[in-house]
Amino acid sequence: MHVLMISMDANLLTDGIGNSRARHEFYASHWGRLSLAICTKKTLPVYQSERVFAHPTQSRSYAHYLIDGIQMGRRFHAAQPVDLIATQDPFL
What we know:
There is one protein chain. It is built from three helices and five strands; from the N terminus they run βααβββαβ. Strands 3-4-2-1-5 form a five-stranded mixed sheet, with helices on both faces. It is of the alpha/beta class. The mean pLDDT is 88.
């Protein structure tokens, strides 16, 4: 199963506060593949492992995040069809 997550939490990219990487690796071990479009306004590194693909949008503004996120989701879907879309924020 390929899960696309829409996220605003950049901790996975920076390996900052908490256990974000370990938690998402755990999710991917059960689901198969986990792709994340992470809303960012600054340049951050891409995080990629065998099953987790987390990419920052590097959007100019939060309004551009919508367009950037859709384009990123399409690229993820082209690489492997997405089975489920999840988000951390119900308003996002």
